[in-house]
Specification:
The protein is an alpha+beta fold and 390 residues long. It is 33% helix and 27% strand. The two termini are 39 Å apart. The structure holds acetoacetyl-coenzyme A (CAA).
């Protein structure tokens, strides 16, 4: 019996800021963002969107009358948590109409936590093969105006179902981890924006990659040459390119532009359009690979590197299942990205300055969300989620 990802979908906000607009406002050369960071647009959440609505919108296409009652666990990975106590997945359970005999928990370790969720889900399914686990990862990346990280902001959510004998990806048991107590990126509970030592964070990311790969290899994992494709955590897509070059050098492989494009290029497409989505980013990249690669990847191995600042890294691998292409939602995903509303700088600044009211009063938000679920307001410190009917 294999265990892995049976179905997968993603969602980002219905609004975006072109990074060329941000560059113009910040007095930067647009090529710094387009070429230097490898980013074109950032997803900007509406006032009536948060990690719950993004995740519920990502998961909605995966839920149907066949699996609604069979999902026994919901794991919600995020570092943009909306509550210190209640798991965001509990709201999603109600919005999606999942059964009540369900275990729900929220996981945190910066951008890494969705990988912990995936590994835990595989363990649960291996123990009880008839069960299905819904993994959600949803984040809004905020660094603040006029910071070096500003151009790497974004938002997005991924949802996938882990089950036995999956239709899309079998996850291998071998994995390699690396953890170290470092301060490269963090967000104290009393802050809305992340603190980051940007250059240091890229160095630690690459160190964690090398060490995770070493540990993966020692655990009996595949060789570099056994993989046809690789996916990396993508704070910005250029980071994925740097990571892949580093891994190639570590393995004595010479990496030219053509091989780089072949091995990671199709996995970068969606992230270039939405920006950093923290915990969801690696898996949106994986989905981008499955939906956009020109080759049939059936039976081929994909290597994945998950990184969460602070830090935890994990290198692991999957095999693409024959016939995976027939379950693709590429048309819907591309349509979702292409029908987004473009913001000017003022529109972005106004939305990104919006923070949730904290006074316990009755607040209702303008109806801006493009998806099926929205955060209608907050009353008495309670979030009110509704359906838009779209
Ligand atoms: N044309 C083409 N390229 C240009 C250019 C131009 N006109 N101007 C600059 N560039 C290039 C630079 O050469 C540089 O490329 P290299 O890194 O290959 O040398 C690139 O554009 C970026 O330029 P800078 O290094 O000058 O940019 P910066 O210092 O202003 O900011 C950053 C870069 C530190 C990554 C910043 O965006 C940041 O702090 N981001 C947030 C932190 C982050 O994403 N860290 C990644 C690792 S941590 C992680 O992965 C977890 C997570 O999700 C946060």
């Amino acid at each position: 019996m294999s265990v892995g990802i049976d179905d997968i979908s993603f969602y980002s906000s219905g609004m975006f800021l072109p990074l060329a607009t941000l560059a113009e406002h910040n007095g930067e050369d647009p090529d710094k963002y387009r070429i230097g960071l490898g980013q074109e647009r950032m997803g900007v959440p509406a006032q009536d969107e948060d990690i719950v609505t993004l995740a519920a919108n990502a998961a909605r296409p995966l839920i149907n009358s066949d699996n609604r009652e069979n999902i026994t666990t919901v794991l919600f990975a995020t570092e943009s948590s909306i509550d210190q106590s209640k798991a965001a997945g509990v709201y999603v359970q109600r919005l999606l109409g999942l059964g009540s005999n369900c275990r729900i928990v929220e996981l945190k370790q910066a951008c890494y936590s969705a990988t912990a969720a995936l590994q835990m889900a595989c363990g649960l399914v291996a123990r009880k093969p008839e069960s299905q686990v819904l993994v959600l990862a949803s984040d809004i990346a905020r660094y603040g105006f006029d910071t070096p990280g500003e151009a790497t902001q974004g938002c997005g959510a991924i949802a996938f179902i882990v089950k036995a004998n999956p239709r899309l990806l079998a996850v291998h048991a071998e994995t390699g981890c690396y953890s170290e107590d470092v301060m490269d990126f963090w967000r104290p509970n009393y802050m809305d924006t992340a603190l980051v030592d940007g250059k240091y964070s890229t160095i630690i990311y690459l160190k964690a990659l090398r060490q995770s790969w070493k540990n993966y290899h020692e655990a009996g994992g595949l060789d570099f040459g056994d993989f046809s494709r690789f996916c990396y955590h993508l704070p910005f897509t250029k980071m994925g390119e740097k990571a892949h070059r580093k891994l190639a050098v570590t393995n004595g492989v010479s990496m030219d532009v053509e091989l780089l494009e072949k091995q990671i290029g199709s996995g970068l497409l969606y992230n270039r359009q939405i920006g950093n989505s923290y915990s969801a980013s690696l898996y949106i990249g994986l989905l981008s690979l499955l939906e956009n690669d020109q080759e049939d990847l059936s039976g081929q191995n994909v290597g994945l590197f998950s990184y969460g600042s602070g830090c935890v890294g994990e290198f692991f691998s999957v095999t693409v299942q024959p016939g995976y292409k027939q379950y693709s939602r590429r048309v819907q995903h591309v349509d979702m990205l292409e029908t987004r509303q473009e913001l000017d700088y003022e529109g972005y600044a106004s939305l990104f300055s919006h923070t949730c009211p904290k006074d316990g009063g009755e607040h209702y938000f303008p109806s801006e969300a493009a998806g099926h679920y929205r955060l209608a307001g907050i009353h008495d410190h309670k979030r009110i989620y509704t359906e838009t009917g779209d």
